[in-house]
Specification:
The chain is an all-alpha fold. The protein is built from 13 helices and no strands. The chain has a single domain, classed as MetI-like (MetI-like fold, Orthogonal Bundle), CATH 1.10.3720.10. Helix content is about 70%, strand content about 0%. Keywords: Cell membrane, Membrane, Transmembrane, Transmembrane helix, Transport. It holds the Pfam family OppC_N.
Length: about 300
Amino acid sequence: MPDQIEKTAVGTLDPEPVAAAAPATDREKPRSLWNDAWRELRRNPVFIASALMILFLVTVALWPSLFTSTSPTDCQLAKSRQGAASGHPFGFDLQGCDVYARTIYGARASVTVGVLVTLGVALLGGVLGGLAGYFGGWWDALLSRITDVFFGIPILLGGLVILSVIKGGSIWTVIGFMIALGWPQIARIARGSVITVKQQDYVQAARALGGSTGRILLRHILPNAVAPVIVVATIALGMYISVEATLSYLGVGLKPPTVSWGQDISAAAVQYRNAPHMLLWPAGALSLTVLSFIMLGDAVRDALDPKLR
């Protein structure tokens, strides 16, 4: 009788809990912020469309000879303001230059300025703002007062004054000027983000365990504080391209022989009624480029901010 009770008790044991306990290695690992962001971006048609357009623009900027064999400086006054012709789908400008070739080669200056200024601003502003937010004290107070001074200088007004005095007109002069006036915005964003992150429990735990300042900044604060900087920098990239075009339009930005959409728009504005094609194509290319980067920035912002999902 006891044997039968023992067998019955053993036989009534539920095997399901044992089978349900899956090994720890088979459990799904929690996704990070960046994995979630990339997952959202791949599903966003706005991101896909803007990324494809930007990829095309970067290809045009790096290898313009793939899209045209005509030199943008090869001009014939006899063809001044003529419309589309065989091999010249966009017509000719006031100097008899091929508008299509100048539109293609103009992408190089705009994309180069936009990308390099964004990288420079993000690096300089991110480092200065991050250090100010982490250490605080007199360093934070000094940086705050400096950024207040720079915020009082509009970038277009500063460009008109500074570039008209320098009179260089090279692409590196324009890039350096825009970085000098553009970093305070990123610095303020980075400062606020670092102040928020350094108060988190995992940062306090790393500090209590004796982690060095460099390790805490690189391993704990940087990965969690860089998202707002990336969002602002991506959106600002389109603005930097439009600022360069505006300064070139006003005659203080890029100078020949550098080909710029701003230069072509400025030259075509006075001939718009007689030859609208001179203005249509460079202005359309500029608008499409700026729109692509702004759309990319909006998509990245939505993916990195969980509150907007």
